[in-house]
Amino acid sequence: MALLGFAGAGAAVCAAWMPGILIGLGVVVLAGLVTWLLHLAGWGKPSGPRPEGEWDWRVRDTRARAGHADCLGCRVAGPRRAAAAAAGSRPSVALPAAEEGA
User: DSSP letters of the chain?
Assistant: First the structure.
């Protein structure tokens, strides 16, 4: 969505069409809001290591309802989500050790 908005706004700049520029920038803002809402719904994966079963992008993050620790998007969503994210930090997952001498 953001790519379409930027392309539309760029084409409108070339054509010197002010309403098209505003429409394109509106689509970019809408794309940001949609991305944020999808993140809050559990489709935006938090950074950091996750269990192997959650590596695929089609797997929803079930802990997203409580909020992600150290996540600006979750803190912006409201004080309840920010408090839940701060209180319940995610369990760390051990990463496989690199082979020595490789």
Answer: -HHHHHHHHHHHHHHT-HHHHHHHHHHHHHHHHHHHHHHHTT-SPPSS---GGG-STTS--GGGGG--TT-HHHHHT-HHHHHHHHHSPPPP-PPPPPPTT-
Verdict on whether the full-model pTM lies above 0.90: no
- The separation between the first and the last C-alpha atoms of the chain, rounded to the nearest angstrom, is 43
Q: Give the model confidence (pLDDT) of 1-38 as tens digits.
A: 999 999 999 999 999 999 999 999 999 999 999 988 88
C-alpha 10/C-alpha 16 separation (Å) is: 10
Euclidean distance between CA atoms 2 and 68, whole angstroms: 24
